[in-house]
Design goal:
By secondary structure, this protein is of the alpha+beta class. The protein has a domain of about 110 residues. Helices cover about 20% and strands about 40% of the residues. The chain has three helices and eight strands, in the order αββαβαβββββ. It has a six-stranded antiparallel β-sheet with strand order 1-2-8-7-6-3. A two-stranded antiparallel ribbon has the order 4-5. The longest helix is centred in the first third of the chain and has 17 residues. Keywords: Signal. This is Lipoprotein. It comes from Mucilaginibacter hurinus.
Length: about 160
């Protein structure tokens, strides 16, 4: 009887414990929550992405040091900070639509919109997840990006993992 009880208990609990529906990088939902205007994610067995965008009415609402500290408190490790000038950003287009193109793999963020005008400041992070280029198998740990607008009124976060 006791064995039967444990079997049914395991049967009932297994679906709850087997997989999590938590989205990687979902901790960003707790960052300036009232300013979030876009939150997209897609998870599949082979990988997925998470994209968030914030907008504020005041300049300097979003700052690099604050975003960096928030990311690092949640396990992301800063690798590089770089700027993209207007000429560079204007080339990030596919079929006339602007998209984010700052990953080591040119098309890893194709299809995700770029919501911030130019120039940009881009923070590249290791996230603890891998991004794999499907055609070559090349892997990178740098797959999380925080993009800040020049005036600090707009910020986007891009995270992609898997293939």
């Amino acid at each position: 009887m006791r064995t039967l009880f444990y079997f049914f208990l395991l049967l009932c609990c297994a679906p709850l414990l087997s997989c999590t529906k938590e989205v990687p990088a979902s901790f960003w939902r707790d960052y300036h929550t009232k300013a979030i205007v876009k939150n997209e994610h897609d998870m599949k067995p082979e990988g997925g992405y998470n994209f968030m965008h914030w907008e504020a009415s005041s300049n300097k609402t979003f700052t690099g040091p604050e975003a960096r500290q928030f990311a690092e408190r949640n396990g992301w490790k800063l690798v590089k900070i770089y700027k993209a000038d207007s000429a560079t950003v204007s080339r990030w287009k596919k079929n006339g639509i602007a998209f984010a193109k700052f990953s080591p793999f040119d098309n890893s963020f194709a299809g995700l919109s770029q919501y911030i005008g130019r120039p940009l400041k881009i923070y590249a992070f290791k996230t603890g997840w891998l991004l794999v280029e499907p055609t070559t198998g090349k892997k990178t740990e740098v797959n999380g990006y925080v993009v800040l607008g020049n005036r600090g009124r707009r910020m986007s976060m891009y995270h992609r993992w898997g293939e």
